[in-house]
Each structure stands twice: as C-alpha cells, then as structure tokens.
Amino acid sequence: MDLNRDAMLVGLHITAWSGRLYDREASNHVAVHHDASTSAGRYNKRLLSKSALAPLNAVMNESRTQHYAQSMPWDDKGSRLLTVANYDRYTEVMDGLRERLVRQRARFIEDYDHYVEQARIDLGKLFRIEDYPSKDQLRDRFSIRYRITAVPDADHFIASLASDDTERVKRDIERHIEEQLHNAVGDLYRRLAEAVERVSERLQEDDDGKPLVFRDTMISNIRDLVDMVPRLNIFGDHRLASLCEEVKDRIAGVEPDSLRPSGAFDPVVRAQVKRDADALREQFAGYFPAPQPEAARQVA
User: Fold this and answer.
1) CA neighbours within 13 Å on the CB side: how many for 49?
2) Among 16, 82, 106, 243, fewest CB within 10 Å belongs to which?
C-alpha cells in the first residue's frame, strides 16, 4: 500500500444560521422578576419556527452522516481518510447533498418573509426585525464544502528540518501514521460489528414473547456497509474482507419482511439470521486488535 497514492484527506465544512439569538433584555427581565442574578440564566429566542429550518437542517445532518460513513478517522483536527477507491462515491454523494442544500436554501429564502411575519406573531414583544439577516445575507449563511488534501508523510515533514535528530523525528511521525491507520481499520470493524449487533438485538422477543419491531433500515444499513467497506479497505485487511463477505452472504441478502410478522414472515429464516448474527457478533468481539502500549513499542 502506498498511502499517498491510494488515499487522501478530506475535511467537511458546514455553515448554517441557527435561527436562535440570545436576548439580553429578556434575560435581565426574567432575572429581575424572579429576584435572581443576571448570570443565573439566559433567554435564547427561536427567531423562526422549528419547521422553517427543518429541511435545511436535515440536509446538513445527512451531510455529516455521509461524510463520516464514506471516510475513516484520521486526526483530531477534522480531517478524515478517504480512499481513492471511494473518491467517486464520496464526491457523488456530497455533491448531491450540496445541490439539495442549494434547492432547500432557495425555497427557504422564497418563503422567508412569511416565516418572519409568523415569528412576529409568535414572539410578540420579543420580536425585533433587526435580529433577522437579509435575504442576501442568508445566501452565505448556509453552505456545504469539502476540501481534499494529500496525506503527509514523514519525508515531507523533515525535508527542511535542520537537525541531527531527523531519524528519530521521522520514526515518531511514521509511528503516528501507523497508529492512525490502525484506528481507521478498527473503525471499519466497529461499523460492521455494530450493524450486526443491532440486527441480532432486534431479532429478539419482548417480555411477552412477541418479536421486536424490525425496520427495513436494519438490512439497508448492512447492505450499504458491505458495499462500502471493500472500497475503504485500503489496507487489504484479509480478515476484514472475509468478515464483510460473511455479513453480505448471511444477512445483507435477506428481505426485511421475512424477519417480522407480516405476509412474508418466515420464522425459519428469522431463526437462521438470528443464529448467523450471533455467530458473527462472536467473531467481531474477538477481533479488535488493540494498539501496543507506548512502553512496549519503545522496548521493541
């Protein structure tokens, strides 16, 4: 694996207007009315109804979800590891969400005057027109952007380092990168394990012996994962690939309707999927390789 050739870093940047505002005057009024300190609480106004911003918030939440789903953890500064194999899918999904945001933003701005007039009624004496941005300002308040950068390597960092200790610095950087890669592959195991565990749990019965509610997303999420994991498995982890295939063969192909009481319910299929999910849970439970302690690495 050549990390610089096979992967990149991606950062997601979302801007949004919250539609909320701290009202100092109202906060002071409440404090005085209750003989309380002015630092005892804050009154935050909802400038628009929750439903007005709901479509925009839904797109932005989905963007965060997909950003994390289509990439792997890398550092604590917001960058995620994106494989070349999954680049096309990532950009397709994120560009689609950006277009959805543009459409929802246009609808929101078109109806903005109506929302403000409704807020005038809802807020009563708390309403102040100066609290509201203009329509032109709103166009810059909602955006989704992602930025692609190269994965840095040790040689890049030490190229201009004037020190006799460059080899130690290089080893430290390489060790850090290895740890990041370890965390990334562990994240893929975790995703598959959690999805299988959810299926296993939902195939149990309640206290009255009745099957728990089993939703289509239990299976659709599994299908999305087994499709995505091979593209993110940049490390060529054979065990991960094998487990992914098992999940695909045993669970992903099952129709949700056969797992819950309905016209297509099949208790035999449900029992078999439950056994398979439990068996897979045991396999995942034994395969989360822990990083070596720092002291052990230094001794090695």
Assistant:
1) 16
2) 106
Assign 244 to helix, strand or coil: helix
pLDDT on residue 63: 98
DSSP string, 253-270: TS-GGGGSSSTT--HHHH
pLDDT score recorded for residue 295:
40
User: Cα separation of 227 and 291, whole Å?
Assistant: 27
Q: Give pLDDT < 50 ranges for the chain.
A: 158, 289-300
Q: How far is 124 from 23, CA to CA, in rounded Å?
A: 14
DSSP structure string for 37-52: -TTS---EEE-S-HHH
Rounded Cα gap, residues 251 and 281, in angstroms: 12
Which residues, 6 or more positions from 205, have their beta carbon under 8 angstroms from its beta carbon? 211, 212
> Closest Cα to residue 183, out of 77, 68, 84, 81?
81
Residues 187-216: pLDDT tens digits? 999 999 999 999 999 999 888 888 888 999
Of the candidates 214, 180, 174, the one whose C-alpha atom is nearest the C-alpha of residue 198 is 214
d(CA 77, CA 72): 13
- In sequence order, which residues have a C-beta less than 8 Å from that of residue 34 and are 6 or more positions away? none
pTM: 0.81
- Scan for tokens 């939703």, then name that residue: 215
Task: Specify the pLDDT at position 296.
Answer: 39
